[in-house]
Design brief:
alpha/beta, Rossmann fold, 7-stranded mixed sheet
Length: 326
């Protein structure tokens, strides 16, 4: 099979298209013929050997795919051959024509969802749903500040916050990105390039919940924007791991809560499946929908990762492996 391979750690431009053996499913596993792979922040780390999980070289990046089951291993009752699935591969394997995955790490594609949208659905929306539903203790009417709101998980948080009845304030780096956020439910917006985050949030009455998938320099002013008993959700650090003054946590009586969706899916699989069912229902009702801003063929998958590294992506970026399966 063809795969886009990381043969040496480095920049995405070093990825090379090559031929590797097609994998065979073992007991409890299925093989997925991949339609498309969603590109996520961990992909920018694995290729540079900066992620906590380190696949051995050579490997295809990509941890989130959609496709069709074409073979099953011993003991697998579901999904069956021919099923349309979303599969979570962990830290690697998605930029390839086929992938083997534990059957338990697949989910049926929601009815009415094409396979291209499915490839960009679970990682972003699953993370944001877990953050806001399981970790944030939201109350309708509270104010939610979403940092990096035009990214994949950020835009999903805007949608889900709106569903939960929160007053969503979206912060992003351009007027064009903020327009997309408004189209997904944000009622207020903040442009990092022209507005001071802390001053703007003071004018808006502060935040009860901060959703932070960015880190970096915006973390402290966002924390300072929290109201009494607020909740700060730590989701990721593409802009760097911030240093938080703990005196602010004391003075505001606020909580800083970690959101590690991948570990949650492993430790609480029943809750994860219930969340996926709710996401599917929201999709069926037209309340959530992945926003795909760019698509690249398998051979150009490095450009997809570069889009994330350069913060050009709005919503999700896809690597299209076999669009004929859509």
């Amino acid at each position: 099979m063809q795969a886009l391979l990381c043969t040496t750690h480095g920049d995405p431009e070093a990825l090379v298209l090559g031929e590797v053996a097609t994998p065979e499913p073992g007991p409890g596993q299925v093989r997925v013929r991949i339609a498309a792979a969603g590109v996520n922040y961990p992909d920018t780390l694995t290729i540079r050997d900066l992620y906590q999980f380190k696949p051995p070289l050579p490997f295809p990046p990509g941890g989130e795919v959609s496709g069709i089951v074409d073979a099953v291993g011993d003991g697998v009752e579901a999904p069956a051959v021919g099923a349309r699935v979303i599969a979570l591969l962990g830290s690697a394997g998605g930029f390839a024509e086929y992938a083997v995955v534990d059957a338990a790490l697949t989910a049926p594609v929601p009815d009415g969802m094409p396979l291209d949208l499915a490839a960009g659905f679970v990682f972003a929306h699953g993370t944001s749903q877990h953050a806001l539903v399981d970790r944030a203790d939201p109350t309708p009417g509270e104010t939610l500040l979403v940092l990096g709101a035009a990214g994949g998980v950020g835009l999903a948080a805007v949608e889900i916050g709106t569903i939960l009845g929160l007053r969503v304030v979206a912060a992003a780096s351009s007027a064009e990105k903020l327009e997309v956020c408004r189209s997904r439910g944000a009622v207020e917006t903040i442009d990092y390039t022209t507005e001071d985050l802390r001053d703007r949030m003071r004018d808006l009455g502060g935040a009860d919940i901060v959703f932070d998938p960015v880190g970096g320099d915006h973390a402290e002013p966002a924390l300072r924007s929290l109201n009494w008993l607020g909740r700060y959700l730590v989701v990721g650090f593409p802009a760097g791991i911030p240093r938080i003054p703990l005196n602010l946590v004391l003075l505001k009586g606020c909580d800083v809560r970690g959101v590690f969706w991948g570990e949650f899916t492993r430790r609480q699989p029943a809750r994860h499946l219930a969340n996926l069912s709710q996401l599917a229902a929201w999709f069926a009702d037209g309340l959530v929908r992945p926003h795909i801003s760019a698509r690249y063929p398998l051979a150009e998958g490095g450009r997809a990762i570069r889009d994330l590294m350069d913060r050009k992506a709005v919503g999700k970026v896809l690597v299209e492996v076999d669009p004929g399966l859509y």
